[in-house]
Amino acid sequence: MSLLVVGLSHRSAPVSVLERAALSVDAQSKLLQDTVAAEPATEASVLATCNRIELYADVDKFHAGVAELSTLLAQHSGVGLEELTPYLYVHYEDRAVHHLFSVACGLDSMVVGEGQILGQIKDSLARAQELHTAGKLLNDLFQQALRVGKRAHSETGIDRAGQSLVTFGLEQLATGIAVPSWARGKKALVIGAGSMSSLAAATLARVGVAEIVVANRTFDRAERLAEILAAGDDNAVTARAVRMDAVPDELTRADVVVSCTGATGLVLTAESVAQAVEGRTGQPLVADAGFPAVRTGAPQPAADENCPLDLAAAQPGFSVMGEAAVAGMDAATLEQHATWAAGGNTRPAVGRTPEADAELITALAATAATVGRIPERRRPEPVAERPAPAVFLLDLAMPRDIDAAVHRLAGVRLVDIESLAEASADAPMAADVDQVRRIVSDEVAAFGAAMRAAHITPTVVALRTMAADVVAAEIGRLHGRLPELDERQRGEIRQAVHRVVDKLLHAPTVRVKQLAAEPGGAGYADALRTLFDLDAETVASVSRAEDSTETKDRPA
Q: What pTM was estimated for this model as a whole?
């Protein structure tokens, strides 16, 4: 059996695809169960974070495994296989081990060196263990990945290069100002009470915000998080919990909003953010130049009226003229959309005409014809005098919690996963990264050698078992032919024969383990079985016994 990983991440796929492919906890569990039920796989584990979705499996056939895992990912993510395939990457055997170890060390993270991934790997392993989809290979692999990640953080300065997404996001919101100075005295709203939201709340408390309000669909979890924050010894923050229906009111009071929930739809629409800021400032909120205005309260089209968009599936606050509407459209569909807009079927932005909007979409169609597709989000040209933000929003959810159209609102600053990906691409890497890469390479080699050596162990055990059986049979035959021997003499003969067999087998078995641990050494087990005519079922029974012992001895 061999290790295979099929996945996609922020390095291989745009945020729009990652967002659509995001898996809920229930979907992850179902994916694991369906994977081990499929023919090529015997073990499976899913690593799903805000910027990656990876399926690990122990498979007996490479090509069949890739096809099956890709199909399962597509089925459970809801993204068609043809659309998903260009963004998938595949790693096999040692390359798969190298990939996971790199991920565990933070080398493949959006923010290089961040340590939160270790908790996510631990959760992934725990879920697979709970569902009994992780066997010896994946248990050993993920536990070793955790050890490698901890080693990288303890032996190098990778922590200086990396930080959590929360810290990095707050730095992007503060835009050049020291985060403690920027955060001091602000009121924060944290939406969600999971691990990422809890980290965000703790970070906000540490950097000096004056008040934190926690909103969550399960009110008890919000209360627990608020109590933990208020009881902290290293901060003087005021913390309280509210229910989700109180979010609109809390938005009018909050200076900073961090959202990270497991919702499949938008938690905050552009319209709701605009209304909240208008309620706070008393001034109407306008859009940046170059983008259609977000019309708070404007009715959405009730029917498609020949619009090429699927309006029935649109999220609340969806703008048929916004960039989110046309993201990913091909040129032909964009031209249809332009024709529809030119017919006066949509209400134009303030100060614009339907003809101007149609011209804008036609221009986008030309872009699509040239580059193949419209980027997920296009930013406006820099505005000379943009109003200072009245509210700062950090969206760490995948799929996103906050409508991307909020980027267009003057007086609001939004940082989301896509923004963080763009910013992190330009972030300098610490010199310690090279040292971490060397650690990963060494650990991959050691893990591969251990796995290859372990592969031959059942064969060696079966050989020694066969030798012991031969010795026992011959000693028994000797006792029948020489009944006059006393017990002391029989014991001496028995020990002498065992010593001879042990000495004959010692050098070959030690050497074959060494050879098997080297790359390409998998064939030595087959050679040993052939040379000594070992029964395949005997070897398999040793493997099953070892796996059973491994499971029994594994801590819960």
A: 0.63
